[in-house]
Amino acid sequence: MKPQPKPVPEPLPKPPVPKPSRSGLVRWALRRTAGALLVLLVVTVLVFAATEAAPGDAATARLGPQAPAGAVEALRARLGLDRPAPLRYLDWLGHAVRGDFGASYANGRPVGELIADRFGNSLVLGLAALAVLVPLAVGLGLWAGLRAGRRGDRIVSGTALGLAAVPEFVTGAVLMAVFAAGLGWLPAVSLLGAGQGPLDEPSMLVLPVLTLVSVCLAQNLRLVRAGVAEAARSPAVVAARLNGVPELRVAVRYVLPAGLGPAVPVLARSVAYLLGGALVAESLFGYPGLAALLVDATAGRDVPVVQAVALLGAAVAVAANLAADVAVHLLEPVRGHTR
């Protein structure tokens, strides 16, 4: 008796892709943008209130606690600190909207110039960390999620848990002790000379970048892995495999978009953290970025600099989360097809 040929599965039908109207997308984008601007407005109030609530002021910090009361009051008047707080807030907000953050109380330089000098350094450090973080988190998360429950998945997930359990300053100190003090391969500090940029000596970026990546990698990797593992068990993916779709195409077309959805908001927070100035890493390695500027300004009660840096960090965070909302909105139809 001749063996019966195996039936060939029918081609996988393509599910209809919902196409929202252009006007609906515009309204959605306008609502999200309005919400982001409202959050920024609330942040300006909180930043101003926090600097007002801090003990002392710039006049006392500049002249010292033993200075005569008359000299302190004269300096307060010259700096405008004797005006009512609501008026000073409105005045600061009006100038900040135009990009004018005033002058530093410490040295009289425009705050915009001080931030521009440091923001470029923080931007280079953050982009370098992102260039390492995103491929690692997405690649390892996809690899582990497609092997959920196997040895490779357990190794990757366990390593991620270990990284998440170690504080950032401990990781940085260990890296410094091993690769700088022990092996002498990399510089222990990331100080820049006059007129020198971080890209002039890329080796000084390695240890801060590794420290930052160790902080952000664990959570992003685990979220991608969880999303990929769930998507890999979905009916659409199972049907695609039964119909002979190549595994690489299944992973890229069906699994990865669905797996990225849960990780995008957390990745956005990582972007804000990295680009807004990572305080511990910059302080530990002496890197001249925004975080170091914020520490110095806080110690000297240089309120205009503190307010500007805090507002810039909040703006980066809000923009990153708005971009994450857009990405999740675009990925949602693809995720819906894998459920």
* Second rung of CATH, namely the architecture of the domain at 115-337: Orthogonal Bundle
Number of beta strands: 0
Rg over CA atoms: 26 Å
Strand proportion? under 5%
Note the overall shape: globular
Task: Please write the string of helix (H) and strand (E) elements.
Answer: HHHHHHHHHHHHH
Oligomeric state: single chain
What's the CATH class label of the domain at 115-337? Answer: Mainly Alpha
Q: Specify the helix fraction band.
A: over 70%
Region (Disordered): 1-21
Protein name: ABC transmembrane type-1 domain-containing protein
Membrane topology: Multi-pass membrane protein
Subcellular location: Cell membrane
Topology:
Layout: H1 22-53, H2 58-63, H3 69-79, H4 85-97, H5 111-145, H6 151-165, H7 168-182, H8 203-232, H9 235-242, H10 247-275, H11 279-285, H12 290-299, H13 303-337
Helix pairs in contact: 1-13, 5-6, 5-8, 5-10, 5-13, 6-8, 7-8, 7-11, 8-10, 9-10, 10-13, 11-12, 12-13
